[in-house]
Amino acid sequence: MADKQTEISTLGEFGLINLLTKELPRHNDSTLKSVGDDAAVLYFPDTKILVTTDLLLEGIHFDLTYVPLKHLGYKAVAVNLSDIYAMNGTPRQITVSLGISKRFTVEHIEELYAGMRLACENYGVDIVGGDTTSSRQGLVISITAIGDAPENQIVYRDGAKDTDLICVSGDLGAAYMGLQLLEREKVASAGQKDFIPDFSGKEYLVERQLKPEPRRDIINILRDKGIKPTSMMDISDGLSSELLHICKDSNTGCRIYEDRIPIDYQTAVMAQEINMNLVTAALNGGEDYELLFTVPLTDHDKISKIEGIHVIGYITKPQLGCKMITRDGESEIDLKAQGWNPLQ
Amino acid sequence: MADKQTEISTLGEFGLINLLTKELPRHNDSTLKSVGDDAAVLYFPDTKILVTTDLLLEGIHFDLTYVPLKHLGYKAVAVNLSDIYAMNGTPRQITVSLGISKRFTVEHIEELYAGMRLACENYGVDIVGGDTTSSRQGLVISITAIGDAPENQIVYRDGAKDTDLICVSGDLGAAYMGLQLLEREKVASAGQKDFIPDFSGKEYLVERQLKPEPRRDIINILRDKGIKPTSMMDISDGLSSELLHICKDSNTGCRIYEDRIPIDYQTAVMAQEINMNLVTAALNGGEDYELLFTVPLTDHDKISKIEGIHVIGYITKPQLGCKMITRDGESEIDLKAQGWNPLQ
């Protein structure tokens, strides 16, 4: 937190917007007119346009007692870009709407916005508009991301075919374990002055929770190798839930192998510490923002050689259902969308 | 309110989304893929794309003690479409994000969504995506609208020229007075059972506050008559504030005539009842969602004949400032953006 704290009322809405949107860079030719009119003006004559949106609410999606505002801004953008990459597209623009309650100062919002600008810089995205208002209900962040892709490049959820290989990038469950760790340290810190949280040996988990990166790198590698997934989505609600989406939309079944689900050792250590089933965490813990996709069996040799991509199973005919084959290879467990129900 | 009330937790997030987005109509060829994947897919090969977004928060932008949910849904869409029309474009798609607290039932959200669907039906707009989440403190509505326009048709805020005529559609201040009326009746109703609010003779004010209509009709008339405004925006924060935006962005001054500002008689009656300066209400009361635009002086005869459009003044060189000529014609008052500061 900066030392100087300025009340937002001293600037007013327009003053704050002017401050935040000063000298916004422009990375894309498709951005014709940015912030400053009733609407932004974009132009995509040759490609299809991708649009996705996410709403993040304080107390539901983030807890500012342990989430730094700059990280929050970065993550709010990153999770939207992840949806564009999951269509095999390129993110180009975002709009940012903020609801700000009285306890936030100009400097707080500058921190938040700095994180957003950094994510936009890293991924070549333009901030082209938004809305800023006061809030009675803590911080509200609503981001809409716009991207594009040539028509023949777009990958939907409904294209998986029998015998396709099921692949995931990175590893799973770490962001969820990061959340458990942060919550644990929050509880431990209650009432203590100058409390220093203990993240030693678990830095990766904290990073996965606080600063997820959308997998542009994976999208680029697949393109370089000439592999076009038959279906794809990003893993935000847990592998199990997302795989069920793909199978339902594609009218298929699937088999995944428990022992092929990629899990980082820090995730495993944390699961043991809090006495939680590791595979449950990997299957149902949210916010991984990895890519889940299917490729034709004929791409097996190509896909197996790519670092950071794991083949975890295969697509079946629909009547075979969606199941996980246990580590001992002896039984099959139905996959269920056990991820938290955010509306409960 | 419907009799039967179903807790949202019985459906869960996906169940609710499925219910709300069931059989969404498709009005536009530019909508290639709607709700149901990581992103919607749109296509505008020949036109420029317009993007605008608004965030509406309970307790700030609406009070559910007197705003019916269906009206709220309608208005939330309408105010976004108004921004697209204000660019001289055609709205095509929206995304809808909702934050829902526990006191809302499935039936409540269906009411809200019914209003959104009605507005979309009336204006030929497709709902193509969104996000639904729980909220700890009331209802959150974030809508992004996407429209399009041929490049040579788009009207910005910065094109006003010396001697251009300043025009507004409809009348001003009624929505603000409607808000005062609704607030007055809310206070009167406090603690009373079966209170019946008294809106007699002021139905227009209530309608203007609760169910604004974006001025597609005006956009169509101007196009039919071959009039292209040199600058345009919609009046959401009050005439005074918006006119200052146009003059600043266009580097001009302006003169408007107090006695030419269009005001409905119900607005005048209400202003007298609550002892408020009528012109202040018309200049600074928000949420009119009328169009403010400038046309070349040579369009004077054409524009004067159009019902529902009022020429209220003219654009000047910048050094003359932005002023209103009083009713007696004897003095000039500086225009100020006195609209409420929503961040205070």
What summary fits the major beta sheet of chain A? Answer: 7 strands, mixed
**Radius of gyration of chain A, whole Å:** 21 Å
Alpha plus pi helix count of chain A:
10
Number of domains of chain A: 2
**CATH fold label of the largest domain in chain A:** Phosphoribosyl-aminoimidazole Synthetase, Chain A, domain 2
CATH superfamily assignment of the largest domain in chain A?
PurM-like C-terminal domain
Q: Structural class, from helix and strand content of chain A?
A: alpha+beta
Tell me the series of helices and strands of chain A, N- to C-terminal: HEEEHEHEEEHHHEHEHHEHEEE
End-to-end gap of chain A = 34 Å
CATH class of the largest domain in chain A: Alpha Beta
Structure description:
Two copies of one chain form a homodimer. Chain A is α+β, with helices and mostly antiparallel strands and 344 residues long. Chain A folds into two domains: 8-153, PurM-like, N-terminal domain (60s Ribosomal Protein L30, Chain: A, 2-Layer Sandwich); 165-334, PurM-like C-terminal domain (Phosphoribosyl-aminoimidazole Synthetase, Chain A, domain 2, Alpha-Beta Complex). Chain A is 32% helix and 24% strand. Chain A has helices at residues 12-20, 69-85, 106-123, 174-189, 203-210, 216-224, 239-250, 265-273, 278-284, 300-304; strands at residues 31-33, 40-42, 48-57, 90-100, 126-134, 140-149, 165-169, 231-235, 253-257, 290-295, 309-316, 322-325, 332-334. In chain A, the strands form three sheets. A seven-stranded mixed β-sheet of chain A has the order 8-10-7-11-9-12-13, with helices on both faces. The first copy, chain A, has a four-stranded mixed β-sheet with strand order 3-6-4-5, with helices on one face. In chain A, α3 links the parallel β4 and β5 (126-134). In chain A, α2 (69-85) packs parallel to α3 (106-123). The longest helix of chain A has 18 residues, at 106-123. Chain A is globular. β2 of chain A pairs antiparallel with β3 (48-57) of chain B, so a sheet runs across the interface.
